[in-house]
Amino acid sequence: MSTLNYIGNLLGIKAEYIKNMRETRSEYLLYVESPVRPHRCPNCHSQTTRIKGYTNRKIQHTTANEKSILLLYRQRRYICTCGRTFNEKTEFSTHYLRTTPRLREVICQQLSEITSFKAVANHCHVSINQVLRIFREIKYSRPSNLPTVLSIDEFKGNAAGQKYQVILTDPESHKILDILPKRDTTELAKYFAQFPRYIRNNVKYITMDMSLQFRAVMKTWFPHAEIVADRFHLIRLVTFALERVRKSEQNSLCNVSRTFKTNKRILIKHFEALTDKEFNKLMDMFHYSPRLHRAYSLKQAFSRVLKFKDNANLQWALDQWLSLVASSDLPEFQSLLKTFNFWRNEIINALTLPYSNGFTEGYNNKIKALKRCSFGLQNFERFRNRILFINTEKGHATTTLHVGYRTKSVCG
Ligand SMILES: [Zn+2]
Fold it and tell me: Known Pfam families for this protein (predicted)?
């Protein structure tokens, strides 16, 4: 195999196209030209090999050794007996003449990572506008279907002049279904109204954190779905109440406030996992503050409630726990009574069903990371497409190779 053959294979260019190669300080220059082949005239459809002339084009390929690879493509123009002239058809002479398909694949592959458009442009030695132009071709339409389990959450996206955006996911298949620009009730209603009733009726469970607004909207549009509170948020409600007690004790017991401040973490750690030293610190805190001791016991009792998996026993355990809270004389815990009463069904669902907002919350962190490295993403449509692109393409390296210029729908 000749050197040009090797280079051709390496770069994904047919060796017969490569006429020469030259290296400069910042670039590899490949002189390419396709063999003369009969072409069909777009006007009269007869075949011709008559050459009208050539145009030299500079096309950006991938990079190697931190250098750009540029194709100096000698584009041939044919002339037909009918007088019509036209360009030859090769893999280079696409509509997007300035970059090769291979470079666009590399750019798309890079865009499926959590990285900024600018970083992708730098990595591929192209301008940021070229990257944006390629990405503009990737669009995701609203899903045509909805899954059995639907998860809804909000995140701080600061896009489209709105602080919060809404994320809809399928927590079972780990797919992001859509990103909505606004979280207000009217916008959500407008969005869900686009799905026919029979599709909305397919949704059996909806997981969410305890947002009254989301619950009201989802109950209206998904009357057949069970709402499942997020387990993590539920546990956090109890942890926060304990934390409020700790803070108040830290402030009121001035002479030992340091003990309460520095051992904050011990209160959250699993009791069984405490070291001897931590256990002693915990006992010290309880010695100074019987109130904190009572609060901690409530938290421990709640962990035992979480262990019940069948509905009847769980209901009983939860009621026992709520009466403990009511008689605890801890004002920091009293708001829980109202919340637990108000969200009772959703909480029971959270503790008996295997669905949670875990995947969605995890993705919100990825979005946060993307925002951080991109210094914000002001353009909402681009922001939305990028999140959906990362979710669809990540872990699907082979499909990335085929990402050309297409409109995609996430579902169906
Ligand atoms: Zn012709």
Answer: DDE_Tnp_ISL3 (PF01610), Zn_ribbon_ISL3 (PF14690)
402: which DSSP letter? T
- Rounded to the nearest angstrom, the distance between the alpha carbon of 99 and the centre of ligand 1 is 30
Residues with CB under 5 A from ligand 1 (ion): 41, 43-44, 80, 82, 84
Q: Give CA separation, 349 vs 223, 229, 319, in Å.
A: 16, 7, 15
Tens digit of pLDDT for each residue in 236-294? 999 999 999 999 988 888 788 888 888 889 998 889 899 999 999 999 889 999 999 99
Geometric angle at alpha carbon 350, from 221 and 297, rounded to 5°: 140
According to the model, what pLDDT value does residue 133 have? 87
- Ligand 1 centroid from CA 47, angstroms: 8
How large is the ipTM? 0.96
Query: In this predicted model, what pLDDT tens digit does every residue of 304-354 receive, in sequence order?
Result: 999 998 888 999 999 999 999 999 989 999 999 999 999 999 999 999 999
From the CA of 81, how far away is ligand 1's center (Å)? Answer: 6
What is the longest distance spanned by two Cα atoms in the chain? 102
Q: E strands, 102-223, where?
A: 139-141, 149-159, 162-170, 175-180, 205-208
- For the chain, the C-alpha Rg in angstroms (whole number) is 31
C-alpha 290/C-alpha 231 separation (Å) is 29
User: How close is the Cα of 82 to the center of ligand 1, in Å?
Assistant: 4
d(CA 108, CA 106): 5
CA of 205 to the centre of ligand 1 (A): 63
pLDDT at 377 over 70: no
Q: What is the DSSP letter of 255?
A: G
Q: What is the pLDDT of residue 404?
A: 37
